[in-house]
Amino acid sequence: MDNTTTLEQTEQITLTPSAAQAVSDLLVNRNLVDYSLRVFVQGGGCSGFQYGMALDNRLRDTDLILEQHGVKILVDEVSIQYLNGATIDYVEDPSGSGFKITNPNAASSCGCGQSSESSEGSSCGCGGNCH
Fold first, then answer.
1. Residue 34 carries which DSSP code?
2. How far apart are CA 64 and CA 12, in angstroms?
3. Which residues pair with 96 in a beta bridge?
4. For 4, what's the count of Cα atoms within 13 Å in the CB-facing half-sphere?
5. Average confidence (pLDDT) per 10 residues, the chain, 131 residues
6. What is the pTM (predicted TM-score) of this model?
7. Right CATH number for 14-111 from 2.60.300.12, 3.90.1200.10, 3.40.50.620, 1.10.1040.10?
């Protein structure tokens, strides 16, 4: 797989400037050099999907790679199928702050943006964090 194909496939995920700044701040505060934001989908909740994010320095052979606003994003080949068109944002409101994923492929989602329902099932486990 060449990088051109990789970039075209992952350009369907958008990282907002506020999310990029939050990731950059985490990397600086934790003194993490050469780390990327890994975004993934995993099973969870009511037979559905839950989004996950982690700071990761391990590139896998099958990872799709994108860089936006100076932040490298890694997505595994299975998760990208569910995340095409998704937007990752960082929001701050009276109830707290955190990352929120808006996914146009989800039939419905929790208010926190951490889990979703697809045509195959639903999930409402809002415990996902960037760790």
1. S
2. 11
3. 93
4. 0
5. 42 90 97 96 74 95 93 94 92 90 72 42 37 37
6. 0.72
7. 2.60.300.12
